[in-house]
Design brief:
Layout: E1 5-6, H1 11-22, E2 27-32, H2 40-55, E3 58-62, H3 68-77, E4 83-88, H4 92-95, E5 104-108, H5 111-120, E6 124-127, H6 132-147, E7 153-156, H7 158-169, E8 184-187, H8 190-199
Length: 208
């Protein structure tokens, strides 16, 4: 069984708000983004995405560390959302402290278990630019959505959109009758992301 821990400077707020957050819609958004933002604009967009998610009733699952993850957590946490870090057991000391907006943590034994936890609990996946870890997470989400369950996947920001254009051009990603891509959306701005959120069916799969 996965352990759930209160974590970080926001822990006292989490203890007070945990019951209330579970009484909300129960929607869960997973955010994938790199430790080193490609630009200040992308970092600002990540924060706006986190804020919009919280305002729409989502809790946030993320890696728990810095960069775009921290920006999204800052936006969500600032609106009172529960922000959960999904990390690897034994790697926390190496990777460092969670960002200060993290309220809960889930340590898991290996990357497969970590990805499964993200995707099995996701009502929405949002992916931005990053390194090879973010690329792994994004491609896993795309495969999951075409093969297991069509969870909505939204790519946001210039870096992610350039990657998607490459995947399509080189035919790493293409639509077939048995693997439709209707789950996939792209946004370039905070306003476009808010409009996309408003268009989604917000029936929860059961939360994390």
């Amino acid at each position: 069984m996965n352990a759930l821990h209160l974590a970080g400077p926001a822990a006292s707020r989490a203890r007070e708000g945990l019951t209330a957050s579970r009484a909300r819609e129960g929607l869960t958004a997973v955010f994938f983004g790199g430790v080193v933002p490609a630009s200040a604009q992308e970092e600002a967009l990540a924060e706006e995405i986190g804020r919009a998610l919280a305002q729409a009733g989502y809790q946030l699952l993320h890696g728990g560390y810095n960069g775009l993850m921290e920006a999204a957590a800052r936006g969500a946490g600032g609106q009172g959302a529960t922000v959960t870090a999904v990390t690897l057991t034994g790697k926390h000391d190496e990777w460092g402290a969670f960002n200060p907006h993290t309220t809960l943590s889930v340590p898991l034994p290996d990357p497969g278990a970590r990805l499964n936890h993200y995707l099995e609990n996701a009502d929405l996946v949002v992916a931005m630019g990053g390194g090879v870890g973010t690329l792994h997470e994004l491609t896993a989400a795309l495969y999951y959505a075409t093969t297991i369950r069509p969870v909505p996947v939204c790519l946001a920001g210039a870096s992610a959109l350039r990657l998607l254009a490459f995947l399509r051009e080189e035919r790493w990603l293409y639509e077939t009758p048995t693997r439709p891509l209707g789950f996939l959306a792209t946004v370039e701005s905070a306003d476009a992301f808010r409009a996309h959120l408003a268009s989604l069916d917000t029936t929860s799969i059961g939360g994390a």
